[in-house]
Structures are given as C-alpha cells and as structure tokens.
C-alpha cells in the first residue's frame, strides 16, 4: 500500500499544468483523507487505503487535464470563510477581497442596506454580512444554480441578515426599505474574444460569469445606468472590473451623475474597483 509521502511525490506529474503543483497535490490529498496540510507533514508514513489512492489519482488526473483545484475539492477560501463552489459560477478570487475592504471602509451607518449584484457563491455579500451584522443585505444572481449555492453558503456561515434570490440584475430586486445605501458588484467583464478565455481555470468556469460583450462592458453599463434608481441619496456604487477598464467605468459613472468617482488598485497595482457616490 502507498503512503502519504509516496502520493505527494506524484506532484511531479502536475508540473507542466500548474505552477503550484506541490500545493495542489497536498490539497487533493487533504480532501481525500479529510485532514489538513499539517497532518500530511506530521504523518508522511501513514498508509493510504486502495480506495483513497484510487480517488486521489482520479482527482490528480482531472487536475492534470486543467480542472481548477477548487472545483475538484468543492471549496475555496474567501475572506474569513470556506465557501462551497460549483461550475454554476466563478471561483471567488483573492482580488475581490479588495472590494470587500473598500465597502467596509465606507463605515456605513447601522441599519443601512446593501445589495450584491451577481453574487455567485455569495462571496462578497456573505463577507460583508459577516462583518456588518447590523446591516441588511440582499444578493441576487441570474443563475439558479448560483442562487442555490449562495443560499447554501449563507446557511453554513449561519448568517441571518442576507436575502438571496434569482434576478437578472435589478429586474426583481426589492429593497428592504425601498432603496439601498450600497450596491456592490463583480459582474462579468471579459470581452468576448479575449484570448485568456481559453487559458487556465477560466476554461472551466461558465461564460455567464465571465463574458460581457465585445468590450466586456455590457453588464457594467446596465448596472451603472440603473443603480441611481435603487440608491439612497449619498449611497455608493462599487464595481470590480478588468485592469484596463478603470477609465471606461469612471466615465460611465460620471456620465450617469455619480460624484466622488475614483478607481482603486489591487495588490498587483492594477485598476480593479471603481466607486462613485449618488447624491
Ligand atoms: C464574475 S462572477 C462574480 C461572482 C461573485 N460575485 C464573486 O465575486 O466571486 C459574475 C456573476 O454574475 C452573474 N450574472 C451574470 N449575468 C447576470 C445578470 N444578468 N443578472 C444577475 N447576475 C448575473 C453570474 O451568474 C455570476 O455568478
């Protein structure tokens, strides 16, 4: 029978697919054995059953074919949470935590209401709801699978201040007090012919979560133009976008009448989130 150390050596087969082959291999083995990475290091000689080895090797084969690690193990860490993921929506990205930080730094008053458009796994809404239990949150997605996933994540995080339902952007949005003080969104923003769509993890993610017209701005245009109807006076709109879309999103917000418009950069110093205030 193989032991932990034998199976971890199979990471060599992943080197041409993944630039984190050792980590990927450890995460797959942790998932199969239901242990954490510290356990693998502590017990390298522990024997692995034939059934566990077969499952591990089948997951490794799928990873070698390019399937994202989060889809194979069914979860991804975001903010302080471990979220379930599925092929119905995007795997949450670390860059999106910037949007959460900016939203929290707005220091909105207690009892304010926030809306997350295109919630996917619920990543943004649930992170904000966990930090601001004194606020009410609404989260919507057009994909039923994503709505069910976000509800399930909300339940696991034991959050009672979030309502999640299916809606095409604002179509069926109902604000608890008619309007919101904050609207956040990480919408699809990749151009239809972007070559990145055929590389890496995004090959396995649904186009409904990624693609938005020839310049990637179709959905952002809808959100920016319709948000004023749903924002309270002095309410904020925060949108995550592509590294090359900062100027375009600022222009859209300014021409829709937003003030205090600015773009924040992520940890790679790339334009990532644009915000504006509705007076
Ligand atoms: C880039 S993903 C972001 C998911 C999640 N907010 C995150 O940051 O990980 C965009 C999400 O928008 C949803 N979406 C796409 N078109 C939509 C629409 N017309 N109305 C509502 N949601 C939409 C997709 O299903 C997807 O879950």
Folded structure, characterized:
The protein has 279 residues and is an alpha/beta fold. It folds into two domains: 4-66, Helicase, Ruva Protein, domain 3; 79-278, Rossmann fold, CATH 3.40.50.150. It is 35% helix and 20% strand. The protein is built from ten helices and nine strands. Strands 5-4-3-6-7-9-8 form a seven-stranded mixed sheet, sandwiched between helices. Strand 4 (136-141), helix 8 and strand 5 form a beta-alpha-beta unit. It is elongated. The termini are far apart.
- Overall 3D shape: elongated
Q: Major sheet: size, sense and barrel closure?
A: 7 strands, mixed
Q: What is the name of the CATH topology of the largest domain?
A: Rossmann fold
Low-confidence stretches: none
Mean pLDDT: 96
Order of the strands making up the biggest sheet: 5-4-3-6-7-9-8
CATH superfamily of the largest domain: Vaccinia Virus protein VP39
* Spatial separation of the terminal alpha carbons: 68 Å
CATH architecture of the largest domain: 3-Layer(aba) Sandwich
Number of helices: 10
Q: Structural class of the helices, strands and pairings?
A: alpha/beta
Number of DSSP-assigned strands: 9
